[in-house]
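Supplementary Methods, section 5.1.

A reviewer requested that the exact input to the structure prediction be made available. We therefore reproduce it here, unchanged from the version used in the analyses.
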Amino acid sequence: MSSLKNEAIQGNLSTSRDITAGGHLNVRGNSVFGHNVVIKGWLDAKNIKGPCKGLYASLDALKEAYPRPMPGWYALVGNTLPADVYRSDGGEWVATGEQGGEVNLYLDQLEEDVANLDDDVKDIQEFIADGVLLGSSVTFNTTANTVTLTFKMKKSDGTEAPFTVNVPIVTRQTAGMMTASDKQTLINLDATVWPVTVTISASPDIVEVGVSTKVTLTWEIERRGAEVSDESEVTLNGEEKHSTMEEITINENSPKTLSYTLTAVYDNVTGSATKQIHVVYPTYFGSVQADWAPTETSVKSLTKLLQTSRASTQTGISTSNGKIAYCYPASFGKLISIKDGNGYEVIDSYTLWTVNVGGVNYNCYILTTPVTSSGVTQIYK
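The structure derived from this sequence is encoded token-by-token as follows.
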């Protein structure tokens, strides 16, 4: 038979000092603690009341665990963090359309970091107490994840001691749970500082009307100074692409400008660029004999050029008692200036003819004063 004395108290018990219990404590009613609670052993609780209900593999699993969510509750659904966020709305679990995750603090690592930081501070204090900071040695180097401060301290004995401080930068991958507005702000900032740069080129970028021409489009995609074409989602005029080159065939029956827009998405950041290919009627230029007259046949015998306007600069034209002819589609308009290789205006020395070439009206300018010097440069606009 136990020698311990048991006392039963019917009613309330109030003490103004400490209570120490050497055995187990069973409390069958609710408990209210007005100050801190310290638990030196394990906390074994069936339920812990809080707004976040944890991570579940599926919405069905979440509903099975908490079929009637209370106002203010939220939970995560997915296989890893960040996961889809669901919140209580009218007693039902409703997807927010955002992703998030819990912020985990690893205290052991945190204590180590604090200790290291304390050592760094002591080192800096030692340097400052026994030396001067060399202002010209201070530099900042910023990467995607860290800001590095480097500097030198000149000590009283004349030696210089280098010092480096690394400060981590929070990114949207490591920022943990945040609001949708905060997340979008961070994404926008990330895209502004490190945009996706798209460069697209075409060879050739001017083709002739009615002539089937193969055009090669090539592109480069960069972010943060690195090529990311292989890792990007790429579309060309809305069609998905998986290379950095595309061959197209152009055969148009009238002049026009074709646009090709390349859009690339890398790490949720979008960049784009547009390249235009011009389809034109040809332009003709060359030196001719003194008795040359513009006809469809004689115009086509000149050197063919592909250009998008009447403006043109030609060099190395050599004539001997001959003339210079320049014919282009009349839709380009009339010339307002013609200069020789010395920069002198000579438009009054040219005669304007109109001739039909392949069903298209052309303006033909023919120099009426013979040119006898070689290497003449002609400028038109």
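The longest strand covers residues 131-142. These observations are discussed further in the main text.
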